[in-house]
Specification:
Two copies of one chain form a homodimer. The first copy, chain A, has about 400 residues and is of the alpha+beta class. Chain A folds into two domains: about 1-85, Rossmann fold, CATH 3.40.50; about 180-385, 2-Layer Sandwich (D-amino Acid Aminotransferase, Chain A, domain 1). Chain A is about 35% helix and about 25% strand. The first copy, chain A, contains 14 helices and 17 strands. Chain A has helices at about 10-20, 50-55, 70-80, 90-95, 100-105, 120-130, 155-160, 220-235, 270, 275-285, 315-325, 350-370, 380-385, 385-390, and strands at about 1-5, 25-30, 40-45, 65, 115-120, 135-140, 150, 170, 180-185, 190-195, 200-205, 205-210, 240-250, 250-260, 300-305, 330, 340-350. In chain A, strands 9, 10, 11, 12, 13, 14, 15, 16 and 17 form a nine-stranded antiparallel β-sheet that branches. A four-stranded parallel β-sheet of chain A has the order 3-2-1-4, with helices on one face. A four-stranded antiparallel β-sheet of chain A has the order 5-8-6-7, sandwiched between helices. In chain A, α1 (about 10-20) packs across α10 and α4 (about 90-95) crosses α5 (about 100-105).
Amino acid sequence: MGMVGAGQLARMTCQAAIGLGVRVRVLASAATDSAAQVCVDTRVGDHRSIEDLLALASGCDAVTFDHEHVPGPQLDALEKAAVPIHPSGSALRYAQDKLAMRRRLGELDVPCPRFAPVTRLADVTNFAERCGWPVVLKAARGGYDGKGVWVCESAEQAARVLAHGVSLLAEEYVAFDAELAALVARSPFGQGAAYPVVQTVQRDGICREVLAPAPGLPLRLARAAQSLALRIAAELDVTGLLAVELFQIDGRLLVNELAMRPHNCGHWTIEGARTSQFEQHLRAVLDLPLGAPELVAPQVVMANVLGGDDGDMLARLHHVMAADPALKVHLYGKRATPGRKIGHVTALGSDLAELRDRAASAAGYLRWGNPKEAATPSPAAAAAPDPAAARSLPDSASAPSARDAT
Amino acid sequence: MGMVGAGQLARMTCQAAIGLGVRVRVLASAATDSAAQVCVDTRVGDHRSIEDLLALASGCDAVTFDHEHVPGPQLDALEKAAVPIHPSGSALRYAQDKLAMRRRLGELDVPCPRFAPVTRLADVTNFAERCGWPVVLKAARGGYDGKGVWVCESAEQAARVLAHGVSLLAEEYVAFDAELAALVARSPFGQGAAYPVVQTVQRDGICREVLAPAPGLPLRLARAAQSLALRIAAELDVTGLLAVELFQIDGRLLVNELAMRPHNCGHWTIEGARTSQFEQHLRAVLDLPLGAPELVAPQVVMANVLGGDDGDMLARLHHVMAADPALKVHLYGKRATPGRKIGHVTALGSDLAELRDRAASAAGYLRWGNPKEAATPSPAAAAAPDPAAARSLPDSASAPSARDAT
C-alpha cells in the first residue's frame, strides 16, 4: 500500500501494517519524517509532484493519504493511472475544501453551523447581522490544528483576517456543550464500522485529550453521531477512515469538520479498541473485511504529548514509565519544538478522573519534565468550551485558535 | 538497539519499538528475513562473524538477540568492545547449552527432570536403568521447535540417535499433566516483572496454542512458577526476557527449557497484556522501568499459524477477517513452507472453549484454506500429553518431536 505523507499517522499505519503482513511505501517530504524513520520503503519527494505520486503508486495495490494536501489535478492523474486511491479524489475534495464540504453537507441535510462564503468585510458584517458576533472565519483550505481558524468579535478583527488574502468562509460561533468525534471506516465493498463516539478536549486549537467513550453522552446522541458519520461516509463515497468532528449543543449535533484518514481522535484505539484505527484504515483501503471497533476497557483516555523545552526525553520517559507502568507511551520520533505533537499517551481503566489525571500527568511530564501541566481540568470544565481560548484573536494566519484538531 | 537475528521475534520487536520511539538495527542473514522486511536499519551478515556483530553494535546503546545461536567467543568479543549486551554471554550460555543449564539449575536446587550427559550407548542404557524407558535424548546445543529432541523407547532407537554424532544429554521422560511457561523480564537495574503463567499446547514438537492464564492451574503453582522464573533470572543474571518452560506433574513443577528472548509463549501479550513481551524486552534491554504485565481480558488464546499448502494468503486472510472481526491476525512475511510458523492469531474473551475454537479455526483456515484443522481438542485432551506425538521417533536430527517449542 502506498501512503502519501510520512507524519505520525503514516508511522502508526506502518506499525499496524507489520502485524497484517502488509507492505507500506510512504512518500515523505524528508528522510527524517516521522514515518520515514520506520518505513523500509520510503520515497522522498513532493506530494504536489505528479511524477513523485506516480512513482509512489507504481506497484502498489492501493494508495492512501496521511494528510489532505494533494491537489485535485494530481489526484485525478493518480486515478487515471488506474491505481485505486482511497479515499477517491471526489471524496477527498470535501475534506480539502471547507466550503465545498459545507455546501455538500447542506444538500444532504446534515446539520452544520450556519455559514457563508466571504470575500469582503461587508460579507462578514452581513453574516454577523444574521448570526451575531463572534463570527468564526475559516480558511477554506489548508487549516489544521487550529491553524486557519479565527474567532472574530468585531468587524475590525474580521478586517485583519481578510487582509491575509486567503479564501474564507464565515461560520456562526457555536457555544458548544462538548466537542465530539465520530470515527467510522468504510471499505470500497461498502462495509462500514463505527467506533464509539468520543469527546475531544482542545486547548489553544490543539487536541489535548480524547475521552472514549464520550462521558455522559446520551445513548441517543451517540447512536445519532455514529449514524450520521456512516451516512456521510456512504453519501460522499468515502473509502478508508472518516473522522467527523461534531459540536454537541442543547442535545443536538452539528458537524464541525471532516477528515478522511486516521485521526488524532482515534489514537486511543491502538490499545483501547479491538481494532486500532490504523489497522482499520489498512483493512478498509485494501478492501479487507473491517475489524471489530469495540472498546476493550470501560474507559480510555488519550492525551497528546506536545513539545516543550528541549530536555532529555529518555530521562523523562524513564520517570513516566516508573511512575505509571500501565500507561502506554507513543513517541513519534519528532523533534520537540514548542507546541508540536510529538507523541501521545493512553490510559485504560474504569475511573475517568483517575485516567485523565494519569494521562495528563504523563503528557505534562514528557513535555516539561516537571508537573507544571499535571493538573487535570475537572470533567465539567472540559465539557464546556474554554472561553479564553475560543475568544482569542491571533495576529497571524498560522497562530492557533480553539476550533480545529487534526 | 541492535538485535542479532531477523526472524519474527525481531520483527515484532521492531513493531513495538516504533511506539516507544526506539530505533532498532537488525543483523539479518538475508534481506528477505521476516524482520528485515520491516526494519529500516537492516544489516545483512552472519551472526557468527565478529566483524558483522561489531558493525551491528557500533553506535547502539545495547545489543540483544532474536535467537541463541551467537557462539560464546563472539559474545565475549562484543562485550569486550564495551557494548552492553542483554542477556550477557555468561547468562546466555545457559540458554545455549542444555547440559550447562541443567547443571547450573541443579546447583540452584531448581527442580528439573533427572538428566545425564551421554556419549555412548552404555550411558543411555545405564540412565534407563535408573529412570526407565522412554529416555529423552536432547542435543546439548542448537535445538528448537522440537528439533534436536528424540524420545527413545529402546536402546536400538537410542543408538540411531547417537549415530548423529551430536553432543547429547539424556533426560527422564516426564508424563506431564500440562506444559506451562513462566515468562519474566529483568532489567540491568534488577527490576523484575512476571507475566501470568500460561499453558502451552504442543503438537509434533511445535507450539500450537498458548492459553493465558493457564486454565485450572492452582494459584499456589502459578505463584511458584513465577517465583521460580524470577529467581532463575536473578541467579543467572538474565537481562531482558526469560521464558521458563515447565512440566506440571502431580502438583509439582519441573523446568524443561530456558529461553532468554521474546518467546512464542508470550505472543498473546501483544493484545492480551498491558505491556507486550516485545515492548517489555525493549524496556528491559534499555534499562527502562518495566511495564505492567497484567492480562487485559479474563482469558486469552494464541494459536500459531503454520505453513500449509501454497494457497492465496490474501483470500484466506479475507475470509478469516470476515468470519471473526474481533480476532487479531499476525503474519510474519514468511513463505508458507509446510509446518513453518508463518504467523499467529489471538482471541480475547472469557469463554476458553469458544476462544480456542475461534483461534484454531482461523489458524487452520490460514494454513489450509479449509476447516481441516478447525476442530479444537478438548481442554482435557490438551492438558494431557499427546502419546502419538511424544512417542514418535523421527529418523533424522531435523525431524520434530514433541518436547521443545520456541
